[in-house]
Design goal:
Layout (H helix, E strand, L loop, with lengths): L10 E4 L9 H17 L2 E6 L9 H13 L9 E2 L4 H13 L3 E4 L3 H13 L25 E4 L6 E6 L3 E6 L7 E3 L7 H11 L4 E5 L3 H14 L5 E5 L2 E2 L15 H6 L5 H9 L13 H7 L10 E2 L2 H14 L2 H16 L5 H14 L6 H8 L12 H5 L4 H14 L5 H15 L3 H13 L7 H24 L1
Helix pairs in contact: 1-9, 3-5, 5-6, 8-10, 11-12, 11-13, 15-16, 15-17, 15-18, 16-17, 17-18
Length: 476
Amino acid sequence: MPTSPADRPVVTRFAPSPTGFLHIGGARTALFNWLWARHTGGRFLLRIEDTDRTRSTQAAIDAILDGMRWLGLDWDGEAVFQFARAARHAEVADQLLAQGRAYKCFATAEELEAMRAEQRARKLPLRYDGRWRDRDPAEAPAGAPYVVRLRAETEGETTLEDVVQGRVTVRNAELDDMVLLRSDGTPTYMLAVVVDDHDMGVTHVVRGDDHLNNAFRQLGIIRAMGWEEPVYGHVPLIHGPDGAKLSKRHGALGVEAYRDELGILPEALGNYLLRLGWGHGDEEILPRERAIEIFDLRDIGRSPARTDTKKLENLNGHYIRAADDARLTGLVAPFLAEMLGREATADERALLQRGMAVLKVRAKDLRELADGATFLFRARPLDIEPRAQALLEGAGATLLADAARALETADWTAEALDAAVRSVAEAAGVGLGKVAQPLRAALTGRTTSPGIFDVLLLLGRDESLARLADQLRSAS
């Protein structure tokens, strides 16, 4: 099964329709095309298929471009806008007409509807019956509107050697004479795609398997024009955890939602999308450089991949822990501002960055990371969560008072703070955790936080002792 046309450098493309956000299925398609181009030293092109003028929007175009840049999927050259090439598409249709590989069809909308009604009644496939295929256009009324249809092959079979799906064959009798130009002279999607791929030098058409049937129709245009055929790779669609096609009920989101709402890092989402339907042995953590090195279209599976939220969270946690602290600080800042209801000051951002090494250890996303950092910036006296309040009562209150006294005289170093708290635990005959729990509750208002000594060091002596004093006063 070929993976490259002979003697041609690889050229792949991503061709989204700008009718909505960049969803993860489209992002994965873009990623596969980008990786194959980068792996082979080829080119990755971007084409915006904006021929549906009623649904295409500038906002959607911006969202697609922004999402691709965020994922690090840079394209070569300028983006191509399909609508601007309508004259070129029509030129090819006219060329096919002149060669006798296409013809004018004057069938009216009423005639076509009657044809389909009869086919439905007879339980036949709904396809154009070729009624104008061999008729003389002079038979049509003067000035009658017409469409241009491809004169498709009617005998034999068309076989596609798909790099993902394998060999797929369709009887030509199942393919009707599709429309190339509408009655208003505008090109159809099927024509525009083929012409653009040819003119852009695309060697590999890697896309969702919902386009597999389109490939057989598009090959009819390619062969009629005598153009070189690309390598096709039709990738199974992404399914939800239940095995059904991914949809809004599964929480299907655009790429920007993973970034802005869920707090996912681009390298984590890229790694996750790569592993949805593609694999290389047991490797799960695949940084971009490694992915470029080993990516092969032949490793794409034929079965639909299922989304796995836990896997995405685990990958994101891995990349958060590996990320530069200064970069993380900038990424976390918007989430933190949302939670605090204000922007962090320069000093607070510096504190956030100093604490990042311990704050990021258990976080699975940027939102959780920001939430775990809020204790550093809350105004005194802290609001104490109910479960944390329970730790400040009874024996906890006594241990907290003892710990506060020990800390007042301690040097503010990790070793000295550890020794001070341990001395309280030993004197009370309890484990270190029994003292750390009320300390954590008083210092953060919560039952979970970074290690208690990290908390004390980040807050500093004055703020730590002031927070402890607040709780001791409220308990008295």
